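Subgroup meeting minutes
Present: P.N., E.W., G.H.
Scribe: E.W.

1. P.N. recapped why we're keeping a running log of single-chain structure predictions: easier to compare across weeks, and new members can see raw inputs and outputs side by side.
2. G.H. added today's entry (137 aa).
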Amino acid sequence: MASVSTLRDRLKVLLDDIDGLFVYDDWPDSFHAPGAIVLPIETEHELTFGTTDMSLFQFEIVVAVAQASPLKISQEALDGYTSNTGTNSVRTAIAVDRTLGGQAHGVFWQPWTRPDIEPINGVEYLGQRLPLKVYAS
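Output recorded in log:
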């Protein structure tokens, strides 16, 4: 059975392929931007779909960039990570292996809202929380 740690670690491995992005699979003591933190949000065990028992694991990938002046520069940097395509796209990096190394049945993106100030260890970054659901046995 897949665990939160296993799935979180695999998400980190996929995101590590984005050049120049610092990736953390737990809340870091020291954060470097641009960075992404893979956070588990909620787990619902023993869902039944047909004949297979599965669990639902919900994660947020917090993507954060340094605030620049004008703020438009930060927004453009963040756009590269939150885009549906491109070499810096978080979605593109995870689409390479939607089974997370065979640990999951699938990864499904959820809607996200506008970017906002993301405080990380006392420093404010421009950030975006990207929620996703992972179904695994």
